[in-house]
Amino acid sequence: MRDKRFIANHMGGPLSLEKHRLLIHWAVDCVKHGIEIANVKDIDKRALIALDIAGKWEKGNATVGEAREAAFAAHDAARECDDKIKQALMRACGHAVATANELISDIKKQTIND
Fold first, then answer.
1. Widest Cα–Cα separation across the chain
2. 3-state secondary structure (DSSP) of residue 8
3. Predicted TM-score of the model (pTM)
4. How many whole angstroms separate alpha carbon 114 and alpha carbon 25?
């Protein structure tokens, strides 16, 4: 069951737009830190685009639809990668941008099917 604290106001939940933006900022920071720690230099551009879209969404310059597409693209990139560390980081990029919307169930389905 989904934690109701993370349901956005416009979907009937308590998560304000300000907190939602803070949450996506935190998610992106976590992924960037992971990429830095792993010292990964050549991550697939689809994963990096997902982080860029997340930053744009945080500032109100990207749509939820763009975030959704970027999340799926990052997961596609992860599925095509044999390196387990890069794969995990690309999935994290997908999950970070998915914070823009309530995509967790969609992303879980896609991740489980990999």
1. 41
2. strand
3. 0.81
4. 27
